[in-house]
Amino acid sequence: MGNACGRKRPQASREGSLRSAPENDLPRASLNDHESEESNPSPRVSTKRASAPPPPPTASQSRPRVSTKKSSPRPSASRGRDKEKEKAKEKEREKEDDENNNDDPIQKFISYALSKGVSGLRAEFEELKQKTVPTKDQCFHFHMGANAQKNRYKYRTIDKVSLLTVLFNRDVVCSDDSRVILKELSMGTDYIHGNFCGTPKNPKRFICTQGPLPTTIVDFWSMVWQEGSEFIVMLCNFNEMGKVKCAQYFPPMEKETLVAGNAVITCDSVARQKWPGQITIRRFTLDRIDVNQKRTITHLHWESWPDRGVPPIDSTIQKLLQMVCRSSKPAVVHCSAGIGRTGTTVAIQVIYSILTTIIQSLFKIVTELMDSGKTMDTGLGPFLIKMRKQRAGSVQNDQQYVFIHRLLLERYMSEEEKDNPKFAKFAKDYDALMV
């Protein structure tokens, strides 16, 4: 797979495009082939007194006689020492490879993911989840009574509903620090359940938001116009498993029109494609009648991503992100709650951007990318913590977290690298998790 926003990365070899310097320029470990030598046996000396002084030694007798019977090790010992030598050399080669890959963040990520395995990543996600629960003070506008009807999943207390409902609903909050502030007040407030999520080069690359409610359709199109967005990505369906997940906020058929306040949205075209996921591409004309201006909006509707689940490992996400990245304006991405499918999709693009930025800067990661200042050898933990500060609850469950790793491994590992037991086990455990 190629980079969603950049050039395609070769799969067969990473030497030319991913190393920070030619291999010969990197420090190489020297092999230590010194073996402990077997001591020569001492000459046999008699402790008896000689009855007469011995004659002077001849030239051939001037050196002590040393037995040569033990100079050659027994065959079994020789084979054992050869194996030890080979193991030592193999360790040196591994050490040398590690030094050559020392500045390769992609290789570090691959090694980290495979060493953790699926079970390790699931445990890691649960630990990260506990560290990223926002406080009520960090979501002040979400909790305001005037904004209650603008939230699809409202915060509830244990006194009103069961514990299960509390655990499900309390994670769909909206953080204050990164929220989109509407310039046009709606119902007396500037609030919409949406947050900016950035990449290293663009702090407002995406807007992650919930699926519009009937009461927030006007707000939604006001936000699209205000931020100059040219792409909208819809990752849910209007109804799923008998429940309403999103209001009908756009005209679905060609030539149809929908009016939302001062915005008139006209559907110009509809095209259904297999990427191989089912994607419907619509072109809208967004007409603001109050200022007499029009813009073209591209709407991408991914219809086959299951709620709280993951899609197959294929090229659909890559193709979708490639199209979205044609614009430098904030892309609006939503599912129902705007954190699970939305957070997973945005996370993948942000990680692509981070790795691309590292490569372009000779693998020197900028500490601002991660609050902890750690590089990719610690996995995606610091990244997820940062993203959840922008959009609370992003990447909703352990399946989605493992899916991100699986997709990145598929993208960045060559076929030769995949031919190893660790990757085979990872892929097998992943398939078992997703059943």
TrEMBL record:
Biased composition (Basic residues): 1-11
Coiled-coil regions, chain positions: none
GO MF: protein tyrosine phosphatase activity
Residue spans of biased composition, Basic and acidic residues class: 79-94
Listed Pfam families: Y_phosphatase (PF00102)
PROSITE patterns: TYR_PHOSPHATASE_1 (PS00383), TYR_PHOSPHATASE_2 (PS50056), TYR_PHOSPHATASE_PTP (PS50055)
Positions of the UniProt region annotated as Disordered: 1-107
Record SUPFAM superfamilies: (Phosphotyrosine protein) phosphatases II
Protein name per its UniProtKB record: Tyrosine phosphatase
Species assigned in the record: Pristionchus pacificus (Parasitic nematode worm)
Gene from which this protein is expressed: WBGene00203517
